[in-house]
């Protein structure tokens, strides 16, 4: 034993202790992720592990093997691809079109106020009204001094100076405003309402 140094002996002993200790062998077979919640489940190395309580500690159980799915010889990839519908791409609007509401949010002849999601025009908003054949969009800025217009029943009101506009076509019902509300073109696609607004 004179040929071994103290350091060599410590290495040998610690190596034997690691292989002889069954807990370290079990630890290498359980997930490396810490168990944090009772009943938590994860899949690790083709086994499903559940977090259980052991005394006061939370540990992973022994795990249950998950059967590997093997493709059957009778199924062909072309047959399954033929039965699947190709994914239709969602509409990507050009820069001047803004998705401002879901189509389902609009009820017939009931105006709603929506904001422009554009960062370049954050103060600009719209009043949307569903008609029988289209969605109408007006600016929500009063033509008198540019204050925000609010929806009140079927009328559009600027409460700053009490201008009232008709929700049918945006004309002035009572002033001080004298000009009709600006009208914007709209599109409906993929369940969304788009307003076409060029600054």
Short structural summary:
This protein is of the alpha+beta class and 199 residues long. The protein folds into two domains: 6-65, no CATH class; 97-196, 3-layer Sandwich (Rieske Iron-sulfur Protein).
**Which architecture of the largest domain would the CATH scheme give at its second level?**
3-layer Sandwich
Poorly predicted sequence stretches spanning 5 or more consecutive residues: none
Listing every helix as H and every strand as E from the N terminus to the C terminus, the arrangement reads HHEEEEHEEEEEEEEEE
Over the alpha carbons, how many angstroms does the gyration radius reach?
34 Å
**Biggest sheet, in brief?**
6 strands, antiparallel
Q: Which structural class should the secondary elements be placed in?
A: alpha+beta
Shape: elongated
Proportion in β-strands: 25-35%
Q: Order of strands across the biggest sheet? A: 5-14-13-8-7-6
User: What name does the CATH topology of the largest domain carry?
Assistant: Rieske Iron-sulfur Protein
How many angstroms does the end-to-end distance come to?
90 Å
Strand runs, count: 14
- The name of the CATH superfamily of the largest domain reads Rieske [2Fe-2S] iron-sulphur domain
Helix content: 10-25%
Report the top-level CATH class of the largest domain: Mainly Beta
Q: How many separate structural domains? A: 2
Could you explain how this protein is built, in words?
With 199 residues, this protein is of the alpha+beta class. It has two domains: 6-65, no CATH class; 97-196, Rieske Iron-sulfur Protein, CATH 2.102.10.10. Helix content is 15%, strand content 33%. The protein contains three helices and 14 strands. The chain has helices at 6-20, 22-29, 77-83, and strands at residues 41-44, 47-54, 57-60, 64-65, 97-102, 112-115, 125-130, 135-139, 150-152, 155-158, 163-166, 172-174, 183-189, 192-196. The chain has a six-stranded antiparallel beta sheet, with no helix packed on it. The radius of gyration is 34 Å and the shape is elongated. The model has no long low-confidence stretch (mean pLDDT 74).
């Amino acid at each position: 034993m004179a040929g071994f140094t103290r350091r060599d002996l410590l290495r040998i002993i610690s190596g034997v202790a690691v292989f002889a200790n069954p807990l370290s062998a079990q630890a290498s077979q359980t997930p490396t992720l810490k168990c944090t919640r009772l009943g938590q489940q994860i899949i690790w190395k083709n086994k499903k592990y559940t977090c259980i309580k052991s005394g006061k500690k939370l540990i992973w159980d022994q795990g249950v093997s998950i059967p590997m799915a093997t493709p059957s010889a009778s199924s062909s990839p072309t047959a399954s691809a033929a039965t699947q519908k190709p994914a239709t791409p969602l509409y990507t609007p050009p820069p001047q079109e803004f998705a401002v509401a879901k189509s389902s949010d609009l009820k017939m002849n009931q105006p709603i106020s929506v904001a422009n999601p554009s960062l370049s025009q954050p103060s600009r908003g719209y009043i949307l009204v569903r008609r029988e054949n289209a969605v109408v969009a007006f600016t929500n800025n009063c033509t008198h001094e540019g204050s925000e217009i609010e929806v009140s029943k079927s009328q559009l009101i600027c409460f700053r100076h009490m201008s009232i506009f008709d929700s049918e076509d945006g004309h002035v019902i009572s002033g001080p405003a004298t000009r009709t509300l600006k009208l914007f073109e709209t599109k409906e696609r993929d369940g969304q309402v788009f307003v076409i607004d060029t600054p």
